[in-house]
Structure to design on (236 residues):
C-alpha cells in the first residue's frame, strides 16, 4: 500500500513537470509563429504607420527584453525604439511645475502715458517720469521707463534744452568764485580760501579753530565788500 501511494505521488509530480514543460514549449512555438507572421507582413507592407498607443506599448515592452534581441523581436529598429522612449520621457518630465512666470508686461495705457510725458516735457528724464508716475499711483521701475523710452527712440536721460554742464562751466569759468578749507595740523586751524577761476587769484578769507556757518557767511560778505564792482560779473 505504501509503495502504491509513493508510485502515484511520483507519477503526479512527473505529470506536472510534463505540463509545465509543454507550456514553455507552447509559448516558444507561439512566439516563433508570431515572428514568422511578422516577417511575412514586413515583406508585403511597404510602410507601417504606428499610432501613439502603439509607440507607448512597444516602448514599454522594450524595457522587458534585452536590447541585443530588439532587432529580431520588434518590427522597428532599436534606434526608433530609443527615439520613441526619449519622446515619452520628454512629454512626462518637461518641468512645467518648476517654471516661473516672468514679469508682467507694462499695460498699454501706462506706456502711452510715459511717451506723452516725455513729449510734453522734453527736459524730463526717465527718473523724473518714474517719480511722477508713482505720485499718480502707477508702481513702475525707473529701468522699465528707460526701456520704454529707448524702444520708442526717445533719449531716456535727455538734456534737450540748453547747454550741457561742461559747456555751462566753460562759458561761466571767468565769473566763478570757488571756496574751500585747508587745515593747519599744528594748531588744528581751518583756513578759508576763495579762488577766482578766471584769473586764478587766491583770496585768504581767514582762519579759525571752530568754523561755523555764520563765520563763513561773514567771510564771504567781507570778500564781496573787498571786490566791490568786480563782483557784479562773478557767480559763487
Amino acid at each position: 500500500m505504501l509503495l502504491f501511494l509513493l508510485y502515484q505521488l511520483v507519477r503526479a509530480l512527473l505529470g506536472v513537470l510534463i505540463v509545465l514543460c509543454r507550456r514553455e514549449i507552447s509559448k516558444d512555438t507561439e512566439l516563433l509563429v508570431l515572428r514568422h507572421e511578422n516577417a511575412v507582413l514586413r515583406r508585403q507592407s511597404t510602410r507601417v504607420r504606428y499610432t501613439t498607443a502603439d509607440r507607448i506599448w512597444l516602448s514599454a515592452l522594450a524595457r522587458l527584453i534585452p536590447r541585443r534581441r530588439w532587432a529580431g523581436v520588434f518590427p522597428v529598429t532599436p534606434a526608433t525604439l530609443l527615439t520613441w522612449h526619449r519622446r515619452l520621457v520628454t512629454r512626462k518630465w518637461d518641468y512645467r511645475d518648476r517654471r516661473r512666470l516672468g514679469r508682467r508686461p507694462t499695460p498699454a495705457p501706462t506706456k502711452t502715458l510715459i511717451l506723452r510725458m516725455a513729449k510734453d516735457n522734453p527736459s524730463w528724464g526717465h527718473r523724473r517720469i518714474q517719480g511722477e508716475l508713482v505720485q499718480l499711483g502707477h508702481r513702475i521701475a525707473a529701468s522699465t521707463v528707460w526701456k520704454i523710452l529707448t524702444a520708442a527712440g526717445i533719449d531716456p536721460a535727455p538734456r534737450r534744452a540748453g547747454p550741457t554742464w561742461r559747456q555751462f562751466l566753460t562759458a561761466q569759468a571767468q565769473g566763478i568764485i570757488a571756496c574751500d578749507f585747508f587745515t593747519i595740523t599744528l594748531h588744528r586751524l581751518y583756513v578759508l580760501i576763495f579762488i577766482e577761476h578766471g584769473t586764478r587769484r587766491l583770496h585768504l578769507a581767514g582762519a579759525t579753530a571752530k568754523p561755523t556757518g555764520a563765520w563763513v557767511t561773514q567771510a564771504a560778505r567781507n570778500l564781496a565788500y573787498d571786490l566791490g564792482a568786480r563782483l557784479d560779473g562773478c557767480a559763487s
